[in-house]
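Homework help thread (please don't just give me the answer)

Our assignment gives two proteins as sequence + structure token strings and asks us to describe the second one. The first is just a warm-up. Here they are:
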Amino acid sequence: MSFFLITVKFFLLGIRDIFFSEYCSNFDIITNLPGLLIIILLYLYFEDLVKKKKRSIFKDLLHFFAFFLLYVLTLLVYQGLLNISITLCVGLFIIYFFYYLVVSYLILKNKFCRETNNITITNKQHTILKHWMLFLFICMVFVFIRTLTEFVIYRLNVNFNHSDIFSIISCIIASMIFIKVLMTPEILYGYTFLTNRLTDVNKKNIVITNIWNKKLALNLANVQENNLSEIVFQNLDNYISEIESIDFSYKNYKNPDFSLIDLSNFLSIPKSHLAFLFKHHCTLSFTNYKKAVRINEAVKLIEEGYLKSNTIESLAKDIGFSSYSPFYTSFKINTGLTPQEYFLNKEKIAVL
């Protein structure tokens, strides 16, 4: 949509310069201000990416209502039909679009200042999405500054033909976005799906990283924990290796009631050592660790086509969740998508 709007803008500029150049000033409000609609479109795009809710077309159109009122007002003033300063009209436009810049910034800040999860494949998606949205926000700022600067130069009556320069700047911004899409095509479909479609990746059963703290735990609350600290630390690498060696072939995590005691018995590691490890050497509790492992298995099964012949409810039970609701919540927290969204996106890539 943004590229379509840019195309229409330059088409109008071309018509103006060919047929009406003698009637138009260097800063033609009629053909320049609509270009700022890109800011509203990008705001709606950010909101859609972050909130992932079903959108209302009517509510989305309301964002453009104030713009069209201001645009009609400016057009009437520009034609001399209203006795209002053109500077006031453009000032209202500037305030209007500046508001969307600020709101977009707050959306991105709230989205990416939160902690990321610990599933590698989702962190890659998160990083790519973060860079892409930051890139688009910077482009938004440049579009805003470019139009504001052109208007200020026009009002100061600076004696040079600046319209061509600012048209070139607009072309550069549009080209940068286009090149970015070409260089990072996964932003259109998601890192996971593009990787699975274009490469043959040897998937690990557990892809949970950056959750282990391998430093010696100090200044603990009681004597018992202080005594355990040294013992666990000496065996820390072996313990972590043993925990990560368990996959779904052992069917441990498929049991909804699988507990820390069960893990202790299976690995022949004292329960107190495991409890200490998850408390002081892991960023996840044992409960959340189980969820992450199960969600990773769910992703694997979905990619293998499980949902083509089975329901999401059966998937939840097969990987160890007692019911659909906690599976749905955990899946969305860890992947950023619902199971159905993940499956549908994968199907889109499959037909490419």
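The one we have to describe:
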Amino acid sequence: MIFFLTLAVGSVLILIRSYMYVRSSIVWFGWLAIAGLAYLFELFIFVVGHSYAYNPGVLPEPFYDSTLGAISSQGFAVPIAAVATGVFQLNWKWMVGIIAFFFGIEVLFLRLDLYEHRWWETWMTSISLFVAFPFCKWWMRKLCSSPSVWLQFISIYLFQVSIHTTSMFFLMAVFHLFTFCPGWFSDPSRDAVALMASYSAVVLLAYTYLIYKRLVTFTILIVQAVGWVLIEFVLIWGDVLTYASPLVAIGSFILHVSFLFVMWTLFRDGLQGWNFYLGNKKEAPD
């Protein structure tokens, strides 16, 4: 656990340093949006593809424990490193150095049995980062210079994915307030994470559309609430969703509606007013 915690804390320190460098909300927004993209990648590669496993040794259920390890990597280390490449406008030599660092971390975790490959290979991680870092650097630059409608929509969607999915995971895996049982996989924990992540991804598309089109009104909130109750009823009736108690179900309903309202408050004007700025600093020297 100490290695995963050290990785997460070290990443947060880099994030804080990045913010102090530019004093712009692009740092926080970029982190969560890039983490959302990493989560969608993990849904297909890690959850469905069963490519690798983490072993932080915190949660008793193996796949929940592995997912917690994935959050320390894909929710903190990788997206924050990607943000740093954009904020500090790092060139290729710096990116190669950072990728080499991640390569070393992966090898160390493999040696310590904190991480294991199924069909995934370390070189695949390096290739992924070679693609991800320049892409995220470009993404952040575009967000700071009149981003297109589609880029704003996708970025707001991914921002929500990271927050919503992480929150759902902790409520389900740590506090055991609910669980999903779609019957997709033999491992109940993997089964629950797969539907939870898929459910969040689909629901948040609808949320983002309502927010971006400025359609969130009292009437829409009522319609959305009724629709959510109907979907939840079908899932509960089909033994796919189970709540710890009726009170938890009511609390979940309130949280969903509150989440939509908060996101609408943040993004009702798109990304205007978010003070996205990377400055005019040159790329890091060779």
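TA reply:
I won't write it for you, but here's a hint about the kind of observation we're looking for: The chain is about 70% helix and 5% strand.
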